[in-house]
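tool_call: predict_structure(chain=1)
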Amino acid sequence: MASAAEQLAANLNLGVLSKATELKQRIWFTLGALIIYRLGTYIPVPGVDASVMTEMLNQHGGGILGMFDMFTGGALRRMTIFALNIMPYISASIIIQLMTAAIPTLETLKKEGESGRKKLNQYTRYLTVVIAMFQSYGIAIGLESMHVGATAAVIGPGWFFRFSCVITLVGGTMFLMWIGEQITARGVGNGTSLIIMAGIVANLPNALASLLELGRTGALSLFFILGFLVLAVAVVAFIVFMERAQRRIPVQYPKRQVGNRMFGGDSTHMPLKLNTSGVIPPIFASSILLIPATIAGFSQGQGPGWLQFIGNQLSHGEPLYMALYAFMIIFFSYFYTAVVFNPQETADNLKKYGGFIPGIRPGSATADYFDYVLTRLTTVGGLYLVAVCLLPEILISDYGLPFYFGGTSILIVVSVTMDTVTQIQSHLLAHQYEGLIRKARVKGRR
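tool_result:
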């Protein structure tokens, strides 16, 4: 009997060890995939003089191209095969989500479960190819018109260059989309989010070096730099607190009798996040607002007067830009929350499984209660996003801080880090619970 128990204990230890090995393999796979991504951001697109693109971004880096270059980890500045990054896939995913709420056929697919989700993912991939083709063709046309002095960005302009540029950039985007899916399935964390975070984090050392260089040259005082670093830590802590904040709505399930036994009667809760929309509102708002400033900057004073006026008013730090930025963040917070959370559907699902909120009648009254709570949560969440995003904008415009210290980049890095750490903890907890169950079985056999 003792030898059998010892054998079971040995098998238990081997099982736990194998699970820990699996987690290590997932982490190493994720790191390896991200390293491949970073190596690809240094492979140039054939026929392009990257120094011209770098000079153009140095001159107009505060526009929408500067923001996209931040997301790509400098791949756009170097004009590499990953210049589009994973952004077309994200745009396609958001468009499919919006269409799902508006088109009944797609909404039916969403409710079909795993098979419907696979079809929606396939539609997202097709739309990614279409968006990437349009964006890459626009980049090819724009590169042919770029000059810095007598130096042209494209060595041999023409249809052959446009075709090769489109094929290269679309292929790079599809490869990144595949890497993101592999990380999600075989690694740790959400692959798409990790790719964007890796691009932002990769250039943070350069941004920090630029900040210290401003202090060395006397453009910024030492006390300001120290105060800014302390403020950055405080902002990160505030983001962590707000992203974890949630409203827990109590849910009760009635008791039911099956034969001589009673089942049910459980009490649980439904968590509603304070910031349901995540980082989508700041990305949407900044993308839309930076378009006029980018066009005005590239026109170099040759465009219409009204375009130059709008571009100047919508530049960083201007009162009109700040006001519209805050308004659009709150607007997209409500809009995107309404897309991803349907109070009526949630209330119907709760009613179908016999659950109810104490003091609230099932059905439409529950849906109204969800809408009431979600509206107030979204208001607080939108104001929180405004506070986090506007403070760095003021520092960037008034003190010339690097773009990478913006509120959107900090939100992405902190949110993705929290999500990845949570998934690692879930793996560890699952392994611990499995070990406890096996230990209980060993003791029972003794």
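agent: The chain is about 75% helix and 5% strand. Proceeding to next step.
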